[in-house]
Design brief:
Elements (H helix, E strand, L loop, with lengths): L1 H19 L4 H29 L2 E7 L2 E6 L3 H6 L3 H34 L5 H7 L8 H11 L6 H8 L16 H26 L3 H9 L4 H29 L3 H6 L11 H11 L9 H31 L1
Antiparallel strand pairs: 1-2
Helix pairs in contact: 2-13, 4-5, 4-8, 4-10, 4-12, 8-10, 9-10, 10-13, 12-13
Length: 320
């Protein structure tokens, strides 16, 4: 009996400890619940709805009436016969997703290191370089549409004032320059976000490692290449993936600057989805089936691209 009493007594604190260590599910639901509801409504539901709509031809048949016709994979097959999607939107978006992140990461990384090493006026630069990110993409588009105006735009006026009339082009009206204008404007508007993330990553690195490199005789450039950048690499990869995903569905700057014109030479997949859904003559005022199929396919392409980037950089991340 005494032995049984000891066993019971020894188990009581354990039970008490288990009760005290139980998770406060009520508090967890209180804090996470609203965010999950918003995520389900504005992320999960639109994704599932797009997949569902992609198997239908959707046409308005009267005031407030919409007809759904099941077409199976017909919308997906039609993508292969869409010259704008195949020859303009996809190549332009892939160009966008290849050039813009490269340019953005080079600029953001360079500026992050400049601020990290506290160049003169580094506090001002830290704020100034992030400010474009605080401006709405729509406003950025309007501002640069005025800047690149062929007649009275700031850029062409400055070029003519310098006697460089031959360089004063119709930047948004040609077939070869609009996509590059859009890429440059987009990078200008968003590089501040990557800059801040990279700078935050640099500030988490132990300064004693940098001091040790200096003591061993390393120059500032060698310290950056051999110490700081390897330690920054995981953050760099994350920011690169975020940048790539943003470029693959770039919309607002492109839409305000060019709306894909002229002749779809600056069209991206996101703007072409918008055109086909609401503005495409001959397809009614509402066409959600075919654009949904386009969005679903491109969602898969983006996920594939993210997977390839992650796989390609995984070994280096694990090494560091």
């Amino acid at each position: 009996m005494a032995t049984e009493a000891k066993v019971i007594a020894s188990t009581q604190p354990v039970v008490a400890r288990k009760k005290r260590s139980s998770k406060p599910w009520g508090a967890i639901a209180l804090f996470i619940g609203p965010a999950m509801v918003v995520y389900l409504i504005f992320t999960v539901y639109p994704l599932l709805a797009s997949i569902y709509y992609s198997f239908f031809e959707i046409q308005p048949v009267g005031p407030g009436k919409i007809m759904y016709t099941f077409v199976g994979f017909g919308n997906f097959e039609a993508l292969l016969d869409d010259p704008v999607f195949v020859k303009r939107a996809v190549p332009n978006t892939l160009l966008f997703a290849g050039v813009a992140p490269t340019l953005e990461m080079f600029i953001a990384t360079t500026l992050a290191f400049l601020v990290y090493f506290k160049v003169p006026f580094h506090r001002f630069y830290r704020t100034a370089w992030f400010m474009p990110r605080l401006v709405s993409g729509v406003i950025v588009g309007f501002i640069f549409r005025w800047i690149f105006n062929v007649d009275w735009g700031l850029l062409n006026v400055a070029l003519r004032a310098l006697g460089l009339d031959g360089l004063a082009l119709n930047w948004l009206g040609r077939t070869d320059t609009p996509i590059w204008v859009v890429i440059c404007v987009h990078v200008w508007s968003v590089f501040g976000y990557s800059f801040i993330l990279l700078l935050a990553g640099l500030t988490t690195i132990n300064e004693e490692l940098v001091e040790a490199a200096y003591i061993d005789g390393a120059s500032r450039l060698q310290t950056v290449l051999r110490v700081l950048f390897p330690l920054l690499w995981p953050t760099f990869v994350t920011v690169l993936i975020l940048s790539f995903m943003g470029k693959m569905h770039a919309f607002n700057v492109v839409w305000v600057l060019t709306q894909g014109r002229p002749l779809h030479f600056s069209e991206t997949v996101a703007t072409w989805v918008q055109h086909r859904a609401f503005y495409w003559a001959g397809h009614g005022a509402l066409d959600l089936g075919y654009p949904s199929a386009m969005a679903v396919v491109w969602f898969g392409v983006v996920m594939l691209g993210v997977g390839l980037i992650t796989r390609a950089l995984r070994r280096r991340v694990e090494y560091y």
